[in-house]
Amino acid sequence: MPRTSQTDLAVLGALSTAPMTGYAVREAIRDSVGHFWNESFGQIYPTLSRLESDGLVVKGDDGRFRLTDAGRVRLRERLLEPVDPVPARNGVLLRVFFGRTLGPQACRRVVDEAAAEAEATLAVLTRIRAEVEAEPDTADRPYVMLTVSAGETAARARLAWVEEARAVLDGLDRG
Predict the structure, then answer these.
(1) Contact assessment for residue 125 and residue 35, using Cβ atoms and an 8 Å cutoff
(2) Torsions phi, psi for 141 (to 5 deg)
(3) Which of 24, 61, 115, 135 could be disulfide-bonded to 20 (CB atoms 3.0-4.6 Å)?
(4) CA–CA gap between residue 83 and residue 81 (Å, rounded)
């Protein structure tokens, strides 16, 4: 699925929760699915314009966009499409892969930064989990919690890898 289709999906999904302005769409994406997806204002506004031209959203006099019936149908169609695998882009692993050039100490700093990022992510997701669990139960809750769980699992896996990487790098530093 090309990037545009993914952006369409994110924007239509955000608008499925409530009518909102373009700015609010960006904020909703950041605040709800931001731990695993992001969109820039530069992507959202052209997408909203195109979705409006396609009759999938309408802009009200209040400046807020709303899904049309066709937009709700299109959202469901997009959600049913196979997920297009996106090649991973991981700057930490790129640097570690070429670590011979950096040396063990510089690689250790890269790994330590990855640990700090994973710990920060885990803290944010722990807070989100607590907030969602404190709210009244909704039909969306199990799905939200599945995405939170995926993020927590990925952060914990990153921290486990950090420990392994530190041990290897410490051995190289002594060797």
Answers:
(1) yes
(2) -55, -50
(3) 24
(4) 6
Closest of 72, 73, 55, 75 to residue 5, by C-alpha:
75
Query: Tokens for 60?
Result: 């009200």
Q: Please give the full DSSP string across 112-171, using - where no structure is assigned.
A: HHHHHHHHHHHHHHHHHHHHHHHSPP-TTHHHHHHHHHHHHHHHHHHHHHHHHHHHHHHH
Q: Is the pTM of this model over 0.85?
A: no
Buried b (16+ CB within 10 A) or exposed e, 93-119: eebbeebeeeebeebbebbeebbeebe
What is the residue type of 165?
A
Q: What average pLDDT does the chain have?
A: 91
CA terminus-to-terminus distance, the chain? 47
The pLDDT of 136-149, averaged and rounded, is: 92
Mean pLDDT within 44-71: 96
Q: What is the pLDDT of residue 70?
A: 97
- Name the 3-class secondary structure at 61: coil
